[in-house]
Structure formats: structure tokens, C-alpha cells
Amino acid sequence: MTILAAAQVSKQYRMGEVTVDALRGVDFTVQPGELVAIMGPSGSGKSTLLHLLGGLDNPSDGQVTIADQGLGQLNDQQITLIRRRNVGFIFQFFNLLPTLTAEENIALPLLIDGQDLRKHQARIDTLLEMVGLTERRHHKPDQLSGGQQQRVAIARAFVTQPAIVLADEPTGNLDSKTGEEILELLRRSCSQYRQTIVMVTHDAKAASTADRVVFLRDGLVVNQLKMTGSRGEDIRLIQQHLQETGE
Fold first, then answer.
1. CA nearest to 113, candidates 141, 138, 149, 88
2. Cβ count near 18 (within 10 Å)
3. Which domain holds residue 18?
4. Nearest to residue 188, comparing CAs of 165, 216, 219?
5. What separation in angstroms does the CA of 175 have from each of 4, 140, 145, 170, 179?
6. What does the DSSP 8-state code read for residue 75?
7. Average pLDDT over residues 163-178
């Protein structure tokens, strides 16, 4: 069974009179409960692919499928609903609303979906505990550290219980210790809730926590690497592949 797929997906952008091929016929599949890392040089198409997988943008050609729903046959409103119900996003720069508390930021996707927050309070409380922010629930983003803000962003991504979570450089702005804690949290969430996580990262240590690493170059998937479970060996293999792809 496949929970997320891209079939011969291409994406072109116009920059003045020049057409840029961000993705060129990418085939990509993810199984339920899998944690997949996407790596490659700057400009290889990593973030573009993540946006297409999440229905945030439309491919120029090819098909993206989320939970058995082909997005190409749907209108914008239908895509928005599928995205809202099936996909959680973790952004590199957190994207928290500064006027809301940690608890309110976590609950925001439920509010946008028209849910009664009182019915979901137990889940919000559980997520606050999971990310270690129960005592900081009433603090606004400017009262939280970068790591704490990222924890809020992770809890927000999980609050609707999406089948898929897409993370764009989730440890990119964090110190190494906090980054490790965030990766452990993602790994634990993936195992505990059987959610599927696709993570764009440039960090071999971060990628080594995945089940599989997909390497992009010039808008194409050029290699895939299944992790062995030995982190030191996995980091070495990832670094070797990165050198081969020109990272």
C-alpha cells in the first residue's frame, strides 16, 4: 500500500524569458508509517517536491496522489480539504502566529477546520506533554526558545492526526542538541502514531534517523538508500552518496 506518490512529476517555472526545470519526471512513493528523508544539492528540487507532495503547488506534468486521491482530478477547494485532513506541515521557520499562545498555535488547524476545540482538548493536552511544553502552554512565541517553537510547530502538525507529515529542514535553525531532540521526537511520533513523515534535510545526521533516504539532483531522483540501523554506518553511506550527487 502506498500513502503518498508522485508519478512522472515535472515542474517548470518561468524566470523572465527563461524556463527553469525544477523537477523532471520524478517517481516517488512512500509507504504508511515510513520516515523518508529527501537530500540533494541546493536547487535540486527538494522543497519543490515537498510542496507538490503536500498539494501546496500543482505539477506542470504528472500526478501526485495523497491517500489514494489523485490531485490532478480535483479542484482547488477539494485539494485544500484533502490537504487539511491528511497532511501536516512542519516549516523551517516555524510559521507560528505571534499573537497566539503555544496551545492556541497547536490548536489552530482544528479551528481552521471548524472543529469544536473543547472536543479535542485531551489531544491538545497530550501533544503538549509529548513535546514537553505543558508548563509553557500559555507562552507566546517570543517567550519561547527556537527549540520550543519548533516543538510547537511539530505538535501543530500532528493535532489533526494526519496520515502524512511533511517537514522542511525541521532542524535547520536549531543547535545540535535541540536538533537531536526534535529528530527523536519525530521518530517516536512516526512509530507511536504510525504516521508517515517525509523530511527535507541537508544534514546527514538528521537523514540517518530515516528509514530511507532519497537523493535528488537537477530535478531527478538519482539514488535511494535504505538505512541499516547502524547510525554511524548510515551517516558514512549518506555522506558518500552526497559526494556523488555533488552536495
1. 88
2. 7
3. 4-92+160-245
4. 165
5. 31, 21, 11, 12, 6
6. -
7. 86
3-state class of 92 per DSSP?
A: coil
153 in a domain, yes or no? no
**What pLDDT sits at residue 245?**
67
Which amino acid, residue 242? Answer: L
Rounded to an integer, what distance in angstroms lies between the CA atom of residue 238 and that of residue 225? 8
d(CA 33, CA 94): 24
100: burial class by Cβ within 10 Å (0-12, 13-18, 19+)? middle
Whole-model pTM: value is 0.89
CA 122, 135, 87, 82 torsion: positive or negative? Answer: positive
Q: How many domains is the chain built from?
A: 1
How far apart are the C-alpha atoms of 48 and 42, rounded to whole Å? 11
Q: Which H helix or E strand runs over 64? A: strand 61-66
**What are the grid coordinates assigned to 119, written together?**
472536543
- φ, ψ at 30 (rounded to 5°): -135, 135
Where residue 35 sits, what CATH number does that domain have? 3.40.50.300
Answer yes or no: is pLDDT of 244 > 80.
Answer: no
pLDDT at 217 (0 to 100): 92
